[in-house]
Amino acid sequence: MFSKKPKRNFRTRRNESSEEDEEKTNEEEEKSIKPACALRRPKLPQSRGISCTSKPEKATAKTESHNVSAEDSDDNVTDEKLLELPEQETLTNDTPSSSDEKEDAIPDAKQIRAARKQRREAKAHKDYIPLNREQEGSRLSEEEEDESERDSDEIDDHERRIQFAPKLKTLRERLAEEMSGRGSEDDGTDSEEDEDRILWEEQQIRKGVRMQKHSARNSSQEVARRKRKCDIPESLPQVSIGIIKKRVGAKLETLRQVNRGRAMERQRIQVEMESARAALEQLEKGSAHKQHRFYKAMRLYTQNLLQCLAEKTVEINAVELEVHTLLIDQAEALLSRRREAVREESTRLQLVSYNTDPSDNGYAGQALEEAQGQSQLCETAEANFGDLPADEEPQPEEAAELCRKRDEIMREAENIFADVHEDFSDVKNILSKFDEWRVSFAESYDNAYIGLCLPKLLAPLIRHQLIGWDPLSTDSEDIEAFPWYTAVQQFCQKRGSKEVENPDNSILAAIIEKTVVPKIQGFVELVWDPLSTGQSHCLASLWRSLWDDYLVFRDEKSKPVKALLEAVIDRMRSAVDVDVFIPLYPKKFLDDTCSPQFQFQDRQFYSAVKLLHNITLWHGLVPEDVLIELGLNKLLSRYLMITLRNAPCEKHSVEKCKKVAACFPKSWFEDVNDSPSIPELQTFSKHLLQTAHTLCKKSPNTSTIRDIVTDLLTLLRNMKELDSVTEIVENYHFEGF
């Protein structure tokens, strides 16, 4: 960047040069200064020297004008006082000094002419130093006026202060002179050098600003520090005995608190020391060896237990499958028999009612004779009118065969663990082993998560005890009466059921969820008949007891419970869609209550009412919208209401309405502010009101009719249809109701 040699040198401020540049040039300057001071003859640059001309030099560059400051005047004064004129360039000794000038002594003309001559010679070589203009020489001779006119802009050398030695320049000054020289000589150079120069100048200016800020900050900090040191309050607060007592008391209380804290810390350390000492004594007595032996024995026991259960699980699965197959076959046989009987009866009565085909080979006549024979049982059917049909039961010989096979399977099940020690086959003995672990080494027992492992470990043994358990039978044993239930319950209560974080409290609930619920689900999907009141009542009662005792049945995230609920809903929906059948016959057959058509329709109607009752048993256990969909939208509105509207006898119609209303849960009509809460019951309510109007218009004063109407009003009142009750009472004067 600075490859050219400088042609001219200009003085710049020494203080503006960077400290780094000054340090680099100190050695060079000292080498050049020492000989000059000794000989009093410093070597001047070629561009500098003594000149007698009064014309100022025009070689000032932009860099000099930018860098030269007011300090140059002080430097010039210093140079004038210290430097001496070299011998070959000095004027005569007769030149007056500054003190002589005060005596304003004037040199003679000879001296003046010699000085002017010397100035002209220096000007010809351009080796002169411009002097300050002080006064116009008024003492010039007339013969030199022409020359003074040409140099009118200059001032005489003797009127200036002459610098007899050059000022020592720093590296920064030399760089500025070089850049200034380039600017004056190479005006037409490319703009790249100018940009570098400008960039260098900006960097130097920023450096100077930073140094200024740094020095200002340091000075401000020093002032602040001195101010803080000297910040002495003018007057001190008054001190009284009370204030001193208060301060001493506060200090004393602080020391007492510290003392109490250290005393408590000392007590805690003493307790820890005693505990550590007791643990050390226990370890020294050989408890570690005892613990190791226990862990080793427990590990061997659990390995043997797992191997034993793995072998016996295969046999348990086989026996369990035999029992389930036996029960499934029985359920399918009863269901097929019932459906076949309904199909045959419907076909036979259909032929009797609508037969017009002459090529029936006498089958219609035979059916008619059988139908006429059924009329003899009219009195018996009338006596049992309104009763729901009984559940399907196997024939006596089928029941005996079923019991025989069942006993054989149970004997086979009892022999599964005949060759196994009680420590590996009895739930109580197994839990006693883990209880010993829990009592002796509670920390390791909890760290091993035994409470989470026991339900899966005991599952084969529990399934073995539940092989003969039938949740659909009233004769089946209660689940809480099994030995495994009592053993698990006692194991959970030993540690303390009040502990919230005790994982053993959930062992029984986990066994119910993971072992008992899947078994119930199998019975629901394959054995349960929703038209059987006995089975439905047992299943719903079992579910309700588990719902009340175990929160797992209320947890929507439990997959086994969710699967069981879906199985119950699917079986009820299948029964409504497949097993409900109520035929329709001409009015002439239905007017006769002893006709086989009326009897068959009546049986099918009450079979549907029975299914409605079995479905409403699940009120509060299954979602409410499912009950309304299956019980009201499908059963009541699609099947039962058609039969009720077409009933020829008012007495039979009212009895059927009473049976239907008895199936509704009472909670549907509680806390409804004397208004119906379920819109799906409005059709049934309107039918009751219409039947009451019809009976009252027909013969309102008959005691039999009034009794029937009273029953209808009772049903309407129980269903919170108070407006309908008021309408009948006011229109037909049913006083006292």
List the helices and strands and how they pair.
Elements: H1 19-39, H2 62-67, H3 71-82, H4 98-102, H5 109-124, H6 145-150, H7 171-185, H8 191-229, H9 241-284, H10 287-354, H11 363-374, H12 378-383, H13 396-414, H14 422-425, H15 427-440, H16 442-447, H17 450-465, H18 483-495, H19 507-526, H20 533-549, H21 559-578, H22 587-590, H23 596-616, H24 624-645, H25 650-662, H26 682-698, H27 703-718, H28 722-732
Short description:
By secondary structure, this protein is mainly alpha-helical.
Features:
737 residues; mainly alpha; 0% strand; elongated; disordered N terminus
Question: Would you write up a description of this structure?
Answer:
The chain folds into 5 domains: 14-189, no CATH class; 192-221; 247-285; 321-663, no CATH class; 664-737, no CATH class. The chain is elongated and about 175 Å long. The protein has helices at 19-39, 62-67, 71-82, 98-102, 109-124, 145-150, 171-185, 191-229, 241-284, 287-354, 363-374, 378-383, 396-414, 422-425, 427-440, 442-447, 450-465, 483-495, 507-526, 533-549, 559-578, 587-590, 596-616, 624-645, 650-662, 682-698, 703-718, 722-732. It has 28 helices and no strands. By secondary structure, it is mainly α. Residues 55-65, 124-141, 170-185 have a biased composition (Basic and acidic residues). Belongs to the GCF family. GO terms for molecular function: DNA binding. Residues 18-30, 142-156, 186-196 have a biased composition (Acidic residues).
